[in-house]
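Re-run with default settings, no changes from the original entry. Doing this only to confirm the output is reproducible before filing.
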Amino acid sequence: MALKLSHVAKFIQASYFVLLVIVFMSLYYALCWKTWPEQSVIAYKERQTNVSVISDHGNTERRIESSPLALQECSPIQSLVFAKTHKTASSTVGSIFGRFGYERNLSFALPKPGQIIMGTSKFRPTMLLSPKSTDGQGFHILFNHVPFSKWDISKVMRPESKFITILRNPVTHFYSAAMYFNVLKFLKFKEGNVSSNLEKLLPRLQECEYYVCKCVYNGQYFDLGGSFGNRFRRFSSNYTNDFVKLVDRQFDLVLIQEHLDESLLLLKKIMCWTFEDILYMSKKQKRPHSEVGLTDKQREVILNWNYLDSALHSHFNVTLWKRIDSYGPTFQEDLEYFKKLRKSVSDGCYQFHLSPKKEVIKQRKTLCENLMRDVKPYTKMLIEMEMNKTNQGL
């Protein structure tokens, strides 16, 4: 009898041990699910919206996008031109494209070694590290600064490439560019700030022919291929409207910096990408425009002075919301999900960056490193990789 009781006691002890192990493992996996959503939550959301996640680099999968009317098949587009504009969150967006191409081993139209921008004049194939792709079919991605010329860029890109750019409110753009390029020092102003010197600063910038000044005075117009004859001659409203229409024809999507997450959902849709593909971590953030010290009257002056940028931003901001209206009934749900996902992943990556652990999952580490990498280090790394291939005769 005592022997039987002993066996029962051992059985009960073993059962309690197994139960404790199950509880511990359950808590562990629940914690992993909660604190690191890029695996579990993304996969879940993609299943909910019937979109498969790219899991095999280099392979183009077919996906099924959700639709308010019916399921529609689409394949992810892997070729794009990003016309990078100065001080518009273009580095943040550019890093999305850098990560997308790098993770899939796609080809890049890259500047020559030691350069981050292609050039300060309109694009020419001679600006590139290699004038054409190794397969002869055109490059997959161009994402570095260069004044836009669709005719010349199209010569080196794949024919199916989508053309994307981004614009920003002309007032906050002006202030951000003026601070970034330190125009007061460049133009030898001895004291004061942008606000206190605005009346004298604007004509000085307008008459200046240096690249720095071109990036501040109607700088988005300049980045998108616009040029000036007499910089003090104001273009007619007909010319301005024609240029806006030209940009509208040339680009498949114009993102708006003030509504970046909304813009990226439209990007996801036209490119047939996943939520993971459009994840980002903000780059080069500065103070918000409410702290720049400009008066309402000064803002109006800047809008009128940057009239070409104002026309572009006004038109494409309206266009953005029209496209959002036609997105479908899931837009708000998708937007809320994307914001939560981005914050969760960003918080996790920043925490990992501050206190990395040796036992961290390799895939998590790789995702964080790729998300935190800016356009400049992407460019440097890709150039080195391309030159190594050349040296090895690949």
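The chain has 16 helices and six strands. The longest helix spans residues 2-35.
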